Amino acid sequence: MINGKGGGKIVALFAVLLFAVLGTVSAQQYTIRFNTTASPTETQVAAMHKFADVVGELSGGKIQVRVYHSGQLGDQKTGLLGVMKGSLEMSCDASPLWFADLANYPEIGVLEAAPGQNQNALAVLPETAVRRGLSPVSDLRPVASTMVLGGPPECPTRPLCMIGYADVYGLRFRRFVPLDVGGSLTLAALQTGEIDVAVLFTGDRTVIGPEVVFLTDDRGLQPVVGAVLVTAVAPGVILSSGTARYPTAVLARATSQTPLKRAGSCEEVAASIVFLASPAA
Questions:
Q1: Residue of 225, 26, 219 whose CA lies nearest to 141
Q2: Quick one: how far is CA 277 from the chain centroid?
Q3: What CA–CA distance (Å, rounded) separates 268 from 90?
Q4: How confident is the model at residue 117 (pLDDT cuts 50, 70, 90)?
């Protein structure tokens, strides 16, 4: 069970038969169907895919977990009853009604909770980060008025979205484009240039990678996950194989906006991280 956005709980339910299968894996191969009503961009689906990868690795490929999202194998109630009757191996959803329903089915096991949280984050394209000299969210303040923000339709009224970024960072964007909740529409709008800055979720497996740059929340607007203090290193322009492909003029402009008026090196960033991780920090 992991925490998902909106504070909901995600419960994974196993039929008793599943435990027997996992305990007696031999040369035979098994397929486990894992159903949820969540959409592909939601946190629980990302967790389910991760679970499938781990099971496949630990079993040497003998157990395959197939994830069915968007209720492909039925709604929440159907999934629960399917696990109880043995017609479905696993089901995962976020409805609080499940906790009441589970009391009626003692033969179904519930996994222990694991900490996790999906947070809002501001993201830009790599070329935008270099051209504008963006690394932490604070870097947006002098340029936000010229940029378009896109994200969930409710963002303008949420304290951890536009209201919070205005109060904590002083960000006033040129305009806001209502899109979807951290999903494919927001990412597509960012990639096509319809928006300059996107509100995405840190737990969205579809946008984690070199396609976007998440700006560091250097003033701590977003709540700390699991009460763990995180120290962030937010360097400016760093010379690397990645920045080598950008035009000299773009790098020069970005470098001129840094306090030291020069580009940093990967070694300098590494030294900072080593220091912060040491007892001397």
A1: 219
A2: 24
A3: 47
A4: low
Q: What is the pLDDT of residues 126-152, one digit of tens each?
A: 899 989 989 899 999 999 999 999 998
Structural domains of the chain, with CATH? 5-110 (3.40.190.170), 120-219 (3.40.190.120), 235-281 (no CATH)
Question: Taking 90 as the threshold, does the pLDDT of residue 36 lie above it?
Answer: no
Q: How far is CA 56 from CA 63, 69, 203, in A?
A: 6, 19, 22
Cα–Cα distance, 225 to 200 (Å, whole number): 17
Name residue 177's beta-bridge partners.
150
Q: Which residues, in sequence order, are bridge partners of residue 200? A: 121
User: What is the Cα Rg of the chain in Å?
Assistant: 22
pLDDT at 2: 36
Sign of the dihedral defined by the CA atoms of residues 144, 241, 246, 260, in that order:
positive
Please give the model's pTM, rounded to 2 decimal places. 0.48
